[in-house]
Amino acid sequence: MPANSTGSLFRCQGPAAEILNSLPRYSMKKYQKSLLLAALLAAFGSTSAFAADGTINFHGKIVATTCKIDNSNIQVPLGAIGIDQLATAGQESRRVPFQIALSECNDQLSGVRAQFEGTSNGDDPTLLAIGTGAQDDAKGVGIQLMDEGGKQIGINSETDTLKLTPGSNVLNFAANYVSTSNQTEAGEANGTASFTLHYR
Question: What are the transmembrane regions (predicted)?
């Protein structure tokens, strides 16, 4: 006998009929919904079986971006120079070396440029001016700065890049007087410059 969509799937007579009729009755639509729900649960269960927890560990370090300056207050004695050695514009006194000592340079720093800052000479702006404008200051003279290779460093200008290695480093420079006039006058010849280091 054909199945009934709103009753039991089969009709029987006798004791078998009583047993079947006592079972819960499901419509075909409910049966299909049950199968769909079961399939969805199986799909989600299969997906979750592949999920896993994990941990990511990040490692690094924050380092100083500058070296330590060991001698920030540098004295450079240029000496007492006879005026006859600077009588003509362009004449120079002997060069006096000086150093900037650095320590604790990390391996992230490969180079540095030094910049010497101060008042420039009125006759030659690449030179550092001497004196404070006092009556007893020398006239017609400026202070020249040079790098280790003897290349002039203009006042308020940066040097070429100087190589750094991890740990301690010494930056070598030199200074001397240069006459800027043919009428040089004797007197005090002191000058002051600050320096800034630009790391690479």
Answer: none
Q: For 47, phi and psi rounded to 5 degrees?
A: -65, -45
For residue 50, report the phi and psi dihedrals to the nearest 5 degrees. -95, -5
Burial class (CB in 10 A: 0-12, 13-18, 19+), 95: middle
Q: What are the tens digits of pLDDT across the range 61-93?
A: 776 689 999 998 999 999 999 999 999 999 999
Contacts of residue 19, Cβ cutoff 8 Å, sequence gap at least 6 = none
What domains can you pick out in the chain, each with its CATH number? 1-59 (no CATH), 68-199 (2.60.40.1090)
Spatial separation of the C-alpha atoms in residues 21 and 129, rounded to whole Å: 117
CA distances from 101 to 57, 90, 92, 150, 168 (A): 39, 31, 27, 19, 8
